[in-house]
Amino acid sequence: MKLFCLLISVAVLISFLYEILIAANISVERTDYLYTHGITPSHYRPTTVWSRFIKRLTDIVTSLTVCVTVLPLLYIVLGILIKLNSKGPVLFKHRRVGRFGKEFTCYKFRSMYIDAGPQRAVENDSRVTPIGRFIRKTHLDEFPQFFNVLIGDMSLVGPRPLTKERLKQYDDRLLTNIRCLVLPGITGPNQLIGREHNLKIDIEYIQNQSWWQDIKLICQTLLLKDKSY
Predict the structure, then answer these.
(1) CA distances from 162 to 34, 61, 167 (A)
(2) In the chain, where are the structural domains located?
(3) CA 182 to chain centre
(4) Which whole-number Å values give the CA distances from 42 to 34, 39, 144, 176, in the listed order?
(5) pLDDT band at 35 (very low <50, low <70, confident <90, very high)
(6) Which of 1, 95, 166, 199 is the most exposed place for a label (fewest CB within 10 A)?
(7) How many CB atoms lie within 10 A of CB 14?
(8) Closest CA to 195 of 168, 157, 165, 227
(9) CA dist 126 to 26, 64, 85, 115, 129, Å?
């Protein structure tokens, strides 16, 4: 209990420092990004400093708790199973586009054979290992992304993190650029509907984003029937 209270206190302090020391720089980056891509206030609804603070606090409290308590055990257990199942590293590292179009390294537990190639997964994909099918169905493969949340690359809730090549496939550049105004998330409205991605759903989330909407999406994620393969 004392450890948990300490973690919460640290998270609150980090969130406060985040807003004081980092948010100003993020604000400058956001302004430059909006100007460069021709995005005006009529295209999206900016969030308040308070709402961003609450969202970041929730991200840090949750991700710090998971990284300290759950992730080390998962890494040991799944690491052994993944290694016994196939050759290769325990973690799969891939580049994704984050806020303001900046790329970052996204982490997952490896669920495919190392020579799987870059193609997207399909149903009954032979490239997925036996243990990989289990961790994909249970979404355990995504737990390392809590580390991405902790260091500020991602949020608990947000648009699905996509590759630069995938983003280039969309014709509407304005919507694609608006999408990059926020951090990608472990879960989000598009993640709940399955593998197909709808850009307009991301924009609707950004236009109406709130802490309560994030809580609702997290609850839906926990209760929703799995659509992965």
Answers:
(1) 20, 25, 7
(2) 2-223
(3) 11
(4) 12, 8, 36, 16
(5) low
(6) 1
(7) 16
(8) 227
(9) 43, 35, 14, 12, 8
